[in-house]
Amino acid sequence: MNKPSNIMQFGSKVLDLSTPNIMGILNVTPDSFSDGGNFNQIDNALNQVEMMIAAGASIIDVGGESTRPGAKDVELQEELARVIPVIKAIKQRFEVVISIDTSKAEVMQAAIDSGAGLINDVRALQNEGCVEVVANSDLPVCLMHMQGMPRTMQTKPQYNNVVDDVETFFKQRIQVCQQAGIDKNRIIIDPGYGFGKTLEQNYQLLANQQQLLALGTPILAGISRKSMIGNLLDAPVEQRLAGSLSAAVLACINGAKIIRVHDVKETVDAIKVLSATLAQQAI
Ligand code: YH5
Predict the structure, then answer these.
(1) According to the model, what pLDDT value does residue 88 have?
(2) Looking at residue 76, which CATH number applies to its domain?
(3) Which of 2, 32, 220, 273 is most deeply buried (CB count within 10 A of its CB)?
(4) Which structural domain range is residue 88 located in?
């Protein structure tokens, strides 16, 4: 049976979400976890973007706020100064969807004005003014689930059933967005791996992620290099690639249409093997 095409408009660009898309992570935080903050200069950022696009990324996720467990809040002016010049530089040079990873309405608006094609909010537009900014644009938004706040979220995550609770959260957030004028066809959801979840809860979510397809929105999954890999394998961040690739493939099997990763080339290869296999099913 032919898979239906599933195109989505990201500002001036269109992506086909009927097969998985790879979102490459671009950290522009000086304290960033995985790149030591070396990509602060625009030149370094652009080189990184060029490599990720050549490797097959269709989305670049630009983030200037560290949301790692324990991280401090970043001031508005500091976050703007980090991300906006980078977004403008990417927009000038490359044909790629630019995603802005932020929870601040002012950063969302400035990113939209600078050519961003996707708003990616780990706080699911719960901060003041965020729903309105997205409603007044025509861009898609990724709503992520998080329990608690980054500084404290890993202390004692508690759920009745983590998959049911995440699903209920999205039902409510999708309703709030729709009431504000954000069409459902502009919404992407993300279970929020590592954001206020124990190791076991993260794997319960991954194992049952397909339950979230009932919400009728595409799923984005970000597992790359996270503690659910590192703690399971007892591996430092630089030894989490194989585990991350395995998780990426599993997330796609369980319905994810966008995979957010550090290692674009390796993930594209892994997903190609998955896609070649799935393409032979039921013909
Ligand atoms: C996400 O899942 N995550 S920032 C801890 C790590 C490694 C990486 C301990 N923004 C997501 O990437 N946006 C972040 O090792 C995100 N989904 C979406 N939509 C945290 C991160 C990381 C944290």
Answers:
(1) 97
(2) 3.20.20.20
(3) 220
(4) 7-281
What are 253-273's pLDDT values in tens digits?
999 999 999 999 999 999 999
- pTM surpassing 0.90? yes
Closest CA to 184 of 207, 217, 221, 149: 217
If one counts the domains in the chain, the total is: 1
* Ligand 1 proximity of 260 Cβ (cutoff 6 Å): yes
Phi-psi region of 36 (alpha: psi -120 to 50; beta: other; left: phi over 0): left
How much distance in Å is there from the Cα of 277 to the middle of ligand 1? 28
Helices (H), 1-139: 42-54, 76-93, 105-113, 130-135
The residue assigned the tokens 């970043």 is 74
Q: Which atom of ligand 1 is nearest to the CA of 227?
A: 9
Q: Which two tokens stand for residue 36?
A: 């030591």
User: Is 72 designated active site?
Assistant: no
Q: Mark whether 184 is an active-site residue.
A: no
Q: Residue 2 falls within a domain, yes or no?
A: no
1 found inside a domain: no
* Ligand 1 center–CA 247 separation, angstroms: 14
Is pLDDT of 33 > 50?
no
Q: Which atom of ligand 1 is nearest to the CA of 223?
A: 2
Read off the tokens for 123.
């706080």
Report which secondary-structure segment, H or E, holds 99: strand 97-101
258 lines ligand 1 (CB under 6 A): no
